[in-house]
Amino acid sequence: MTKSEIFKRLLPGFLPIVIFIIADEFLGTLWGLVVAILFAIGELVIGYIKDQSIDRFILFDVGLLVALGTVSIILENDLFFKLKPGVISLLMTGLIGFSVYSKHNIMLMLSQRYMKGIDMNPMQVWQMQQSMKRVFWMMLVYSILTIASSFIESKATWAFLSGPGLVVVFALFFGLEWLIKKKQVKEFGQEEWVPLVDANGRINGSAPRSIVHGGSMLLHPVVHLHVYHNDGIWLQKRPVHKKIQPDKWDTAVGGHVDMGEDIEKALARETREEINLTNFDAKALKPYVWQSAIERELVFVFITNHAGPFSCDTNEVEDIRLWSHDEIKSNLGKEIFTPNFEYEYKNLLMSK
């Protein structure tokens, strides 16, 4: 659900509070409550006529309005009624928080229901989740302040937070989102973008390289080439300036698939760029999904046989040498090799 959709979903539930605040000034608490309830019922009727369905959020809001209002009148204490907007916003905050900090994105499922026909690619879903995290913390602060205002004598403070306060929160939120979006447009426009894929390798979007390497866990394709010779495997040593797994021994060739490339072209390009090998026959092994602390990759693994020697791009490869299988096995688990290579060696290569 987009930011504007979230606001539109929240607004109907908070309008009865605004109506109550206005009516209470002229008619008193009891009639203010009656007017607010009638307004909420009107929202339900209009919504049903328009969409041929009952909006459950407004229905829940009406129920809470009646329950807390009735308790307040019976006990002659408006505390229970005053707690309503804070309780509503806290429940919505919990729903947003559950969506972004668990594996079950309820808000995304709601967006798919209310915005039928609109597909979101993984990059857009990730951006939505980042926005929802920001609105979660803003709404949490707002909810706590609104609930706290119910216990103080200043009716004006409660009236402001319960009504216009929500508008202020979303105005600040949209302003922050505009600034972030403006900054991202400038930064992302200067970056290399990579394709995004599903678990079967089908392209379903694209994202800047910094995002796929920044903990977003957006699945993107990479190619690895293992180069055999006699009873050994050629391995490259990653330069110390590399952000990921610096100064460790790794697959002879490895790199991202560029936008518009197929897997074979990406393999040929990366092999030429890293070890200057242009004429080779490669056999494909089973691809797999690799997840580290900062990224998720769909790895397309290939093997070939070549005696070398190789000329390396020193910016990409610090060194390359032939390792025997005995050397590799004796050094597994000692942080000499990248975890990625050790996984492939034990699960894909030892049976070859």
List keywords for this structure.
eight-stranded mixed beta sheet, Nucleoside Triphosphate Pyrophosphohydrolase, elongated, 352 residues, two-stranded antiparallel ribbon, 13 helices, alpha+beta
How would you characterize the overall build of this protein?
With 352 residues, the protein is an alpha+beta fold. The chain has two domains: 3-188, no CATH class; 195-349, Alpha-Beta Complex (Nucleoside Triphosphate Pyrophosphohydrolase). Helix content is 55%, strand content 16%. It contains 13 helices and ten strands. The strands form two sheets. Strands 3, 4, 5, 6, 7, 8, 9 and 10 form an eight-stranded mixed β-sheet that branches. Strands 1-2 form a two-stranded antiparallel sheet. The two termini are 48 Å apart. The model has no long low-confidence stretch (mean pLDDT 82).
